[in-house]
Write a structure and sequence with these properties.
The strands form 2 sheets. A 7-stranded antiparallel beta sheet has the order 4-5-6-10-9-8-7, with helices on both faces. It is of the alpha+beta class. It has one domain: Mog1/PsbP, alpha/beta/alpha sandwich (Protein Transport Mog1p, Chain A, 3-Layer(aba) Sandwich).
Length: 163
């Protein structure tokens, strides 16, 4: 049940398609970026939902990266972030600040919410660069398990580079 909820969460976070991830580089049409996979996490397939996703069984956490090069997505970062939160209820924004990601301004949003009544803690980053939107998400049970997963998420985020 725990994994079902996490996969549902990841499925709701973004839309994208499958492609190739080789040698640390992801390619899918105009979407092309490099990102280091998190150590100790296993790759999971969420076809047609996210470009890349990993799960950490002990933490019950899911980490995802997605890119989309669609001109209709040239909307404010706050609106793009709100799209990622569709399906989550009882949302409490812990923090929402602008931070740099790959040389651009990104919106970082830390949220505590529920998905189907189950508490979750999320860390989201949304960045626009060269006509594309990239989003990152960490979804985990709140508290200690979220905190344990955050370092891996930050490592993935810091390794991100558009190509």
């Amino acid at each position: 049940m725990r994994w079902t909820l996490c996969l549902v969460a990841v499925s709701m976070l973004a839309c994208g398609g499958g492609a190739r991830y080789e040698g640390g580089e992801f390619r899918d049409g105009p979407v092309h970026f490099a990102v280091r996979p998190p150590d100790g996490w296993r790759a999971i397939s969420v076809a047609r939902t996210n470009d890349l996703a990993w799960a950490h069984d002990d933490a019950g956490a899911v980490l995802q990266v997605n890119g989309d090069c669609d001109p209709s997505l040239d909307i404010p970062l706050v609106a793009l972030t709100n799209h990622l939160l569709v399906g989550f209820t009882e949302r409490e924004i812990v923090e929402q600040v602008l931070v740099p990601v790959d040389g651009r301004e990104a919106l970082r949003t830390h949220v505590v919410a529920k998905l189907d009544g189950v508490p979750r803690e999320l860390l989201l980053h949304v960045v626009k660069k060269n006509g594309c939107v990239y989003d990152f998400a960490l979804v985990a049970p709140p508290g200690e398990r979220f905190a344990q997963s955050r370092a891996s998420y930050e490592t993935v985020l810091q390794s991100f580079e558009t190509r």
